[in-house]
Amino acid sequence: MKKKECEEAIRWLCHEWAKSQGLRGTPDEEPHFEAFYAWVKDNYPRYLRFRTTISVAYDVELWFDQEMKQTWRR
Q: What is the pTM assigned to this prediction?
């Protein structure tokens, strides 16, 4: 798949995963990337197969942080 297609899917999956975990999107919640990544790897591995200059995990974590409003951690 193309990186852009994977990015769109991953960003959508961030919110699907958050719902499945009972997260409400409140400021006191800090969703864990490792749990999300494992969930994607187990359920949607095709979205982790794209070409990138750094690493797939790095790109996915960036998208996750942006969607979960956690870019302050970077």
A: 0.91
